[in-house]
Amino acid sequence: MAGRYESWFVSARDTEPGRPVRALWIRHTRHHFTGADAGSAALWCTVFDPAGGGGPAAVKESVTAFGDDVTAGDDRFRGGARARGRMAEWDLTVTGAPELRHLRPGLLYRAPLPKTKLVAPVPDGIVSGRVVVDGVVVDVVGWRATIGHNWGREHAERWVWLHAAGFDDEPDAWLELALARVRVGGALSPWIANGAVFVAGRRFRLGGLGHVPGVRVVAAPGRLEAIVPGRGIELRVAAHADLDQTVAFTYTGPRQGDTRSVLHSGLASVRLGVRRPGRSSAELATTAGGAYELGARELPAHGVPLQPYPDP
User: Origin, by domain of life (predicted)?
Assistant: First the structure.
């Protein structure tokens, strides 16, 4: 059987005035390795709480299969993880905007390439519930959230995932953006963008194969600058993530030994320059309303300690 992987995740932030700025990232993954008779699974939980002192609190447990008490989908996440003397439990419900299918045209979901498929079942939503990490209870009440679902036969050679919401001057606006370079034969593709931005009460598609020549990306640990064209819109994106509020993990692909290094921050600052033909340009900014993930076969030196959990 050909190898494959599947991941569901919820990413959320509490940036309401008068409350501590916090974020969470919970991920459920499954693997079936090439040539293996059985698969494996893992449950991940990371809480970002700068006011609590220290770096993010992360727990990840690898299991043979998920039990009946584990749920991951477009409206609920429930589960728990125990490893290396740490523990986490979570039970969260999510409501929000209709699904976003990143890839265009839609036939790419049935085609061999790209080898990673992705959708956002809830590209912008509200999550509520409870997370417990090492006995500390985090009451999640009305946090801004997104749900992601991806699957495939191989991780991209290099990718960026950026989500942002709760912009100061336009609270309803949100951004869901995936940028990737993939192997096609022996060649590495230019940066390909897929996603959407919701501004001025309207959802605009970003990227796609027809806009590849206009995409510009400078991605580094803790920093992103990009120009992303779309249908009737162009975005200039700048994101910054403090490395002391960033976690480093290893992602394993469906072929054993095919790994990627990943940096994930749940509290990134994001600035958007929005340009639309015939309209005046707009600037949107959020201080901590973004999540920024950078993945690659190898990353430049960054100083973020690798979490001590194997994958899977």
Answer: Bacteria
Say how far residue 94 (Cα) sits from the centre of its chain.
Answer: 16
CA angle 312–260–146, rounded 5-degree value: 75
pLDDT reported for residue 256: 74
Residue 106: name the closest of 230, 233, 205 by CA.
205
Amino acid at the residue 12: A
Domain residue ranges in the chain: 4-296
Q: Are 189 and 179 contacting, i.e. CB atoms less than 8 angstroms apart? A: no
Determine what percent of the chain is predicted with pLDDT higher than 90.
88
1 pLDDT higher than 80: no
Collapsing DSSP states into helix, strand and coil, what is residue 104?
coil
Question: Does residue 286 surpass a pLDDT of 50?
Answer: yes
Distances (CA, A) of 110 to 47, 106, 115, 143, 163: 35, 8, 10, 34, 25
Closest of 113, 108, 116 to residue 149, by C-alpha: 116
Place of tokens 């809830």: 122
At which residue do the structure tokens 């995740």 appear?
Answer: 9
Whether 17 and 268 have beta carbons less than 8 Å apart is answered as: no
In CATH terms, the fold of domain 4-296 is: AttH-like fold (2.40.370)
Residues 41, 164: Cα–Cα separation, whole Å: 28
What DSSP state is assigned to residue 226? E
Q: CB of 110 within 8 A of CB of 152?
A: no
Residue with tokens 């991605």: 219
Q: How is 119-167 classified by DSSP, letter by letter?
A: EEEEEEEEEEEEEEETTEEEEEEEEEEEEEEEEESS--SEEEEEEEE--
For the whole model, what pTM was predicted?
0.96
